[in-house]
Known about the structure:
Blueprint: H1 8-37, E1 41-42, E2 50-51, E3 100-105, E4 110-115, E5 118-124, E6 137-140, E7 144-151, E8 166-174, E9 181-184, E10 202-204, H2 206-215, E11 221-225
Parallel strand pairs: 3-11, 9-10
Antiparallel strand pairs: 1-2, 3-4, 4-5, 6-11, 7-8, 8-9
Amino acid sequence: xxxxxxxxxxxxxxxxxxxxxxxxxxxxxxxxxxxxxxxxxxxxxxxxxxxxxxxxxxxxxxxxxxxxxxxxxxxxxxxxxxxxxxxxxxxxxxxxxxxxxxxxxxxxxxxxxxxxxxxxxxxxxxxxxxxxxxxxxxxxxxxxxxxxxxxxxxxxxxxxxxxxxxxxxxxxxxxxxxxxxxxxxxxxxxxxxxxxxxxxxxxxxxxxxxxxxxxxxxxxxxxxxxxxxxxxxxx
Length: 235
């Protein structure tokens, strides 16, 4: 079989096709390394592509952006507390026209004051000694003296006798007509709240005596309880 040689034009076409194929092979070989090192691209509809860097050892999920986890701190502990009720004795069951009631308790050497059923104040006291005990019962406040002299002769004990006295006092509030007062007695502060040292009166500090003088109205009941004295019957 006889074959004819390709023409010059045919040879030129074959050469161009060979060159084109070679260029394509080179371009593909150059593009492969670049594609292998490129970071993955996350595409979200309506937003531009976002590159997500690879993390060694963590598989990448195409199309899912990485979102850091957040934790909500626990609420602070509640600081609300219930106020404690005032500590002390129960209010005496006596009638009062002033809203005030007091209890002088020899067991604790304290006098406690209430107003309209609420405890207001507690103060240390010293009542009558064993030789002159304060009688137990319900007294009512009467006249007041900013200062005065207390004289034992007013109830039959001469001033110059062994049991007599004449003493200057301040902030004296009368509790009975036979000479019992609640008054300031700075000389017995060491005994107040601890023991009894008076001739029958209720001794309190000057500050507390002033408070009673300025605060407690006339006809306020004062209950004396727990002494070794007799029962108080007068008023």
